[in-house]
Each structure stands twice: as C-alpha cells, then as structure tokens.
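Per-record layout

source: Robiginitalea biformata
name: Leucine-rich repeat domain-containing protein
length: 206
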Amino acid sequence: MILPAVLILGCSDDEKEVSTEYPPDPLTEIPDARFEAALVNLGYDDTVDGNVRTSAIAFVEDLNLDNREIENLSGIEDFKELVNLSVRGNNLENLDLSANTSLLFIWAENNAITSLSIGQNTEIEKIGLSGNQLESISLSTYTRLQLLTLANNQISRLDVSAFPDLNTMAAEGNPLNCIQVSAVQLDNIPGNWSKDATAEYSEDCP
C-alpha cells in the first residue's frame, strides 16, 4: 500500500509574526504626593500615583513649585534641562540639586533647609535662600553669582570675595560678625548689599 505524500509547509522568516510592542517609558519616582500633584496641575503628569514619565519632565526648563507644602523634592534629578527652579514657601529641609547641571536660577526662600547641595554648575547666577535654617554655606566655585540672599538663616561665616559680579546680597538676620570680601569689593560695596549693623566687611575675617 502506497501512502500519499504529506507536504509539510513551514513559515519563512519573512512570514514570522513581528512584535509591535514597545518597552514602557521609563518612570521617575515622585514620593511626595504634593510634589506630584503640582506636576499634574502643571500638565506634566496625569494622576498622583507615585511616579511620572521621565520623558515628560526631561526637557522642562522652568519649574515653579511655590507654596505647595512640599517636603521631599526627590525626582527633581531627572529634570535634566532645568534652568530656573522656584520652590519658595514649602517645607523642604534638604535640597539636593547636584544632578541639575543646567540650573542658573534657584529660588528656595522660606523653607526649613538645613542641607543644600548644588553640584558643579559654575554658571549659576542667582540663588535665593533667605528664611531657612542653614548654618553654613560653601559657594566659592560659583564665581558668576549676581544675586545671593541668605537673610534670616543661622550662618556664622560668609565669604563672598570670589564673586566679582555680585550686585545683590542679603545677609541680615544671621549670627555674623564679619563678611569676607575682596579688596575691590571693599572699596566699593554695592548699594544692594545688606547686613546687620553688628557685622563688618573685611578682607580677612577671623
């Protein structure tokens, strides 16, 4: 008995099913619900669920988060193109902006900041930190500073001698006896500098 031949057909590589699925967008964790609610309000997110699409925030240059009762700014590190950040009137104790290397303007007045990290961006021009709880601050590498407000903190030593373009400074309300300046600054103290009467400007503070 002769059995009929069985023809087995296989699929060519061209006929194989091609997947149209794409990997999910990376997410940035936003643990502070008030921070994320602000991002929803600004249109960078759609719901408060603990994270935001990284691609939605990566190219944001200007971010205003004033008066939102934010306590934790974790997630700000993924705002890679951020130039201008305002977080005035929140409840921040730590402010870590070391990953935001495009920043030029930082406005963080009236928080409870005791720890500050800005990182290595030497182009920063304006920093507002009045009304916090800083005991010390080191800004010597930011030589392009034009504005620095530190009023009403707990700073006991301040050296602004490395900032030739510093036109505006507020240092009153700190336990300062001496503010170190350069010889050029001492000869012509800018009119927009302010300090307590008990503090003096000097080239050589003890």
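summary: The radius of gyration is 27 Å. The mean pLDDT is 92.
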